[in-house]
Design a protein that fits this description.
By secondary structure, the chain is mostly helical. Helices cover about 75% and strands about 0% of the residues. It is built from 15 helices and no strands.
Length: about 350
């Protein structure tokens, strides 16, 4: 005969539940360490082979030698990769929360397509060739598409489904426009072919300086939206009961994603799947709380982007494969896996 122990005894003998907050903090610190290691690999390994002595010399004793110049270029490229990766991860996390679609990415609402179309227009019709020009055209394109998606989605009555449908339709139209421009203008095709696939090769001190203010502003805004987006995840009625301003949160979320995507696209071109894969993977071990998803995505997205960039520099030596191509190759199978897993879970 089994005798149930008293509640007091059960409470004393039951194992204490793990401190989830401490585990998450530890995991975030480990993620930062991984990012630092990947960044060092990005500086040390590339299309041109350098010894560890040359890398060390280039980092701490720059005297203008060939190795020092290569290391300086890789350092700027790595810093840009960290900034752009964090921006794409944050934008993807915000848009997934805004649309309540865990498979959403910055391209879902047409922001990447808008920025790309504006930059390609600037290259083709206005002869713009500098990043300082790209940035403003990219922002104009992303902001215009964001406003149009917001309007077509119902403005103040916008819902996640309406926003996604409007963004998908506009993206299709804009990518058709891009293809038409590249087919009809051979000269434009030559100037645009490297930019349109997404690359960190433009990473210089000037590039980092120009996009840094926009990426910082967008990142801070995205992080500040964690609590209201958490409330919206429980449904509009519940969010209103908790005091969340739905229209303001949606508008600010669109603004944050627009700034992040516009700056990232202007600096590197359209890079796909980073904003989709990392937030989705992060959510699997942090849970749905955006107060943890956003920091994790900001740290781990650069890990993916820099890792893909290093792979692209190694596999095509002495040339290199653009990072946008590598992320697309890696992202396709992962996206299929995620979709199939969601279907299986729903059956």
């Amino acid at each position: 005969m089994l005798v149930e122990s008293p509640p007091e005894q059960r409470a004393e003998t039951a194992p204490a539940p793990p401190n989830r907050r401490a585990i998450r903090v530890l995991g975030l610190l480990v993620s930062v360490v991984i990012l630092v290691l990947v960044a060092l690999v990005s500086i040390a390994i590339g299309a041109k082979e350098l010894s560890l002595e040359q890398v060390w010399h280039g980092l701490f004793e720059d005297t203008g030698t060939y190795g020092d110049v290569v290391v300086a270029d890789r350092l700027s490229r790595t810093v840009l990769g960290v900034l752009v990766g964090a921006a794409l991860g944050l934008a993807g996390s915000v848009l997934q929360a805004l649309t309540r679609n865990p498979l959403a990415d910055p391209g879902l609402l047409g922001l990447n397509a808008g920025a790309s179309a504006a930059v390609v227009t600037a290259i083709t019709f206005f002869g713009v060739t500098s990043l300082s020009g790209y940035v403003w055209f990219a922002f104009f394109g992303a902001a215009s598409v964001g406003a149009l998606v917001w309007f077509l989605g119902g403005s103040r009555g916008a819902t996640p489904v309406r926003l996604v449908l409007a963004g998908t339709a506009i993206s299709a139209a804009l990518y058709g426009y891009l293809q038409a421009i590249m087919i009809l203008d051979d000269a434009a095709l030559g100037r645009m072919r490297f930019w349109t696939v997404g690359s960190l090769a433009s990473g210089t001190d000037s590039t980092v300086t120009q996009v840094l203010p926009f990426l910082l502003a967008g990142s801070l805004l995205a992080l500040a939206l964690a609590r209201p987006l958490n409330a919206m995840a429980m449904g509009d009625d519940t969010a209103k009961a908790l005091g969340a301003n739905l229209n303001r949160t949606r508008a600010l979320s669109m603004l944050a994603a627009t700034v992040l995507c516009g700056a990232a696209t202007a600096a590197c071109g359209p890079i796909v799947f980073v904003g989709l894969m990392v937030p989705h993977i992060v959510r699997s071990f942090t849970g749905p709380d955006l107060r943890w998803i956003l920091p994790y995505a900001a740290v781990l997205s650069p890990v993916l982007l820099l890792g893909a960039d290093v792979i692209g520099r190694i596999v095509a030596r002495p040339a290199e494969l653009q990072v946008g191509i590598v992320t697309a190759i890696l992202g396709g199978p992962v996206f299929i896996f995620l979709v199939r897993r969601r279907r299986t879970a729903q059956l």
